[in-house]
Each structure stands twice: as structure tokens, then as C-alpha cells.
């Protein structure tokens, strides 16, 4: 079955070439021109959303935030003329997985789409990580994370970071490795994107009361520690 891509763009001269290009790549593409239509369409669970920020009804950042709060866990790529680093960080903080500044080449967009879909549809390791008692449990094949019986909704990048840290539990994983494994060679943004992703991941784990902690090792990277503090 073809992977589904939702294009959210109000300018026809931008949307039409995007849709044609993606359809030629074999994707099942749907196009909407407003934020509300995008949120309504997410019920069909597309694998990827290509989201413009300058929408006529709801700002794209708000669409991204509402989508994540509603439990959408597919990939979100923001495409916008707002190219500043602050806007990139804010977009990622709202739950986006990638950020492409206009104007952009269709070849670059295709490469990023392939990379996002590859990373969100193919497990990096196999099986289920049993973790520690009261810790997170990762079903890598299903790309789902649980705290007890409660599912923890993570974005694609958050899941990938956690999977790598869990596979190396109690060991330090360097920033360079995380950037190389989770983001690809087409990513030219700030490495602050990793810190933003780690920050969101920590908040989500803490919100469900798990004992696993993502610990920063200054100047090196991050480590997932499991178990109670006195264990």
C-alpha cells in the first residue's frame, strides 16, 4: 500500500508541483489549503504531513501543536519562508520532525520526505525493550512506547532518540551519533534541535511518572538511566 502524505498549503502554485512530484514518487497524496481541514484530515492517519506555516485560518505552528496534543504520531515536516533559527527551534518544540525553508528545490524535498518516512516506518532495532520496573517499555516494531499499560505519545524523532538511548541503557550516547542516526545528511539546521527533542522527551516521560531519566553528560551526549534513585 502506498504511503500517505498530506500537503497543507494555501498557495496553489506551490501545492500543485509538490503534489505532482510526490505522486510521481508513488505516494498517495491529499492536499488541503487550511489548518482546520488539515486537523480534520489527520483522522485518516497519513504517514507524513507537509505543513506550511502561513495558513489563512490557523497558524501552522498551532496546527502542529494541536495535532500532537490529539495524539498524531506520524512525521510532520514544516515548509515555510520563516527561516530563522528561532522559528526552527519553535517549530520543533511544537512537535515538528523537520523544517524546510522556502524557496527549496524539489529534489531536496524528495530526499527529506524519503528520509522521514524511512525513519518513521523502519525500526532501528528489533523486539521489545522490557526496560526497568516502573520504566518505559518500547515496542520497536510497532513504534509504540508504554509506561505500564499507558501509551506515551511520541513524535517520530522522539521515538528514535529514545530507542537509541534504550538500546544503550546506562551508557552515554554521543550527540554526534544521535544527530547522525536520527537526523540525516540533508539536515543543515542547528544542533539545538536535538536539545529541543530531548527536552520534550523528558517532559513526556516525567508526565507519566516513569523512573527512567534522560541524563545529559556535559560535552559528550546523553544517557538513559533506569530504576529508582536508590536502586
Protein model, in words:
By secondary structure, the protein is α/β, with parallel strands linked by helices. It folds into two domains: 4-121, 3-Layer(aba) Sandwich (Rossmann fold); 128-225, Arc Repressor Mutant, subunit A. It contains eight helices and twelve strands. The chain has a five-stranded parallel β-sheet with strand order 2-1-3-4-5, sandwiched between helices. Strands 6-7-8-9 form a four-stranded antiparallel β-sheet, with helices on one face. The protein has a three-stranded antiparallel β-sheet with strand order 10-12-11. A hairpin with a 6-residue loop joins β6 and β7. α2 (35-41) packs parallel to α3 (60-69). The longest helix is centred in the middle third of the chain and has 16 residues, at 106-121. The radius of gyration is 18 Å and the shape is globular. Pfam families: Response_reg, Trans_reg_C. The modification 4-aspartylphosphate is found at residue 52. Residues 4-117 form the Response regulatory domain. This is Response regulator transcription factor.
Amino acid at each position: 500500500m502506498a504511503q500517505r502524505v498530506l500537503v497543507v498549503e494555501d498557495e496553489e502554485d506551490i501545492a500543485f508541483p509538490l503534489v505532482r512530484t510526490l505522486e510521481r514518487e508513488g505516494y498517495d497524496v491529499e492536499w488541503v489549503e487550511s489548518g482546520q481541514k488539515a486537523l480534520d484530515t489527520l483522522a485518516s492517519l497519513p504517514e507524513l504531513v507537509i505543513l506550511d506555516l502561513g495558513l489563512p485560518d490557523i497558524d501552522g505552528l498551532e496546527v502542529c501543536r494541536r495535532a500532537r496534543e490529539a495524539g498524531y504520531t506520524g512525521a510532520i515536516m514544516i515548509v515555510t519562508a520563516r527561516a530563522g533559527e528561532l522559528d526552527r527551534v519553535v517549530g520543533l518544540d511544537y512537535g515538528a520532525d523537520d523544517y524546510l525553508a522556502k524557496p527549496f528545490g524539489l529534489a531536496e524535498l524528495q530526499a527529506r520526505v524519503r528520509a522521514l518516512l524511512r525513519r518513521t516506518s523502519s525500526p532501528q532495532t528489533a523486539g521489545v525493550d522490557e526496560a526497568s520496573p516502573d520504566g518505559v517499555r518500547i515496542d520497536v516494531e510497532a513504534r509504540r512506547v508504554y509506561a505500564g499499560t499507558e501509551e506515551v505519545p511520541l513524535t517520530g524523532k522522539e521515538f528514535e532518540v529514545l530507542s537509541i538511548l534504550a538500546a544503550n541503557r546506562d551508557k552515554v550516547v554521543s550527540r554526534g551519533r544521535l544527530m547522525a542516526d536520527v537526523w540525516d545528511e540533508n539536515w543543515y539546521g542547528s544542533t539545538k534541535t536535538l536539545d529541543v527533542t530531548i527536552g520534550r522527551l523528558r517532559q513526556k516521560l516525567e508526565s507519566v511518572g516513569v523512573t527512567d531519566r534522560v541524563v545529559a553528560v556535559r560535552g559528550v551526549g546523553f544517557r538513559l538511566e533506569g530504576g529508582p534513585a536508590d536502586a
